[in-house]
Design goal:
Layout: H1 2-14, H2 30-40, H3 59-73, H4 78-89, H5 104-133, H6 138-153
Length: about 150
């Protein structure tokens, strides 16, 4: 039994996530390749949308990785390489879009919804408290007394 557990643990350890970067894409210069890998993790695969181009095996992600490496090899700074891709594909290519007027709803929307929900809940609870605290009319008190007396008689 212990042997099976060890084999299963070893298989799981070896079956970790694989990256989509193929050896033919990698740059010869280790520093440039490290920069490319770091930048690739900040760029969105336009096909997969919730994966970086570093993790995606989609053909478009491959093309973006190649373009990025070409730009870095040509001497672009990290910012210039990313700006080139943003100019070509828009801010959507960034996994973390910038905080600017056209993305304010994206950044502030969840907080606004949470505040509105909290205000709505507070108003609801306040209204419920008022209804529960209202005094009974004389007719309601008489009816309540009659019902309680009838209940005791059973």
């Amino acid at each position: 039994m212990k042997r099976l557990i060890l084999i299963a643990a070893a298989a799981l350890a070896l079956a970790g996530p694989t990256l989509a970067v193929t050896p033919d894409e990698q740059l010869k210069d280790p520093r440039l390749e490290a920069r490319a890998r770091a930048l690739s993790q900040e760029l969105r695969c336009l096909v997969c949308q919730n994966q970086s181009i570093d993790d995606s095996a989609a053909p478009l992600a491959h093309d973006l990785r190649v373009i990025l490496r070409e730009r870095l090899a040509a001497g672009d700074s990290d910012k210039q390489a990313v700006d080139y891709l943003v100019a070509r594909y828009g801010d959507f290519v960034l996994l973390k879009p910038p905080f600017q007027p056209d993305t304010w709803a994206l950044w502030l929307g969840p907080a606004a919804i949470l505040l509105l929900a909290g205000a709505g809940a507070a108003l609801y609870m306040r209204g419920r408290a008022r209804v529960g605290d209202a005094p009974l009319s004389a007719a309601d008190e008489a009816e309540a007394a009659r019902l309680m007396a009838a209940d005791k008689g059973d």
